[in-house]
Design brief:
The protein is built from 6 helices and no strands. The chain has helices at about 1-20, 30-50, 60-85, 90-110, 110-135, 135-140. α1 packs across α5 (about 110-135).
């Protein structure tokens, strides 16, 4: 049970790292640097969460890195969309606060990390579905 709870905590911390790095909504060189930073921090935090319950840290490194990268991509898309509509700094601040709240709740309530991960997966799938329907009416005119 300790391993599962440590995995949940690590997932929450990796989600927080990816969300914090994706909050500015940057692309290009700055986006790549933020993505690499998110992967490194997410991997390290997941590994530390496992190490705290006397498990080896190395299995958490790739898992934490993947979670942080996926979260970064989803959050960056949300932040970019908000930036196009004029809510750039405010949205980035809200996302950063949410990321810090996720990290804090993951430290206090270990299973919360799993909830945060599922929420990011749901948000990513919902955005993908919505993007597919965006021009659906125009495709039927062909």
């Amino acid at each position: 049970m300790d391993f599962f709870l440590a995995g949940c905590q690590g997932a929450g911390l990796a989600v927080a790292a990816g969300a914090l790095a994706g909050a500015p909504g940057r692309r290009g060189t700055a986006g790549v640097v933020l993505l690499v930073l998110a992967v490194i921090v997410g991997a390290a935090l997941y590994g530390l969460a496992l190490e705290n319950v006397d498990h080896p840290a190395w299995p958490g490194w790739p898992i934490g890195g993947l979670i942080a990268a996926g979260t970064f991509l989803v959050v960056r898309g949300v932040a970019e969309g908000a930036g196009r509509r004029g809510g750039d700094a405010f949205t980035a601040g809200l996302i950063a606060l949410a990321a810090l709240a996720i990290a804090g709740l993951s430290l206090l309530l270990k299973p919360f990390g799993l909830v945060a991960l599922l929420a990011v997966v749901y948000l990513g799938l919902a955005r993908r579905r919505r993007a597919g329907r965006k021009y659906e009416g125009l495709r039927t005119l062909r």
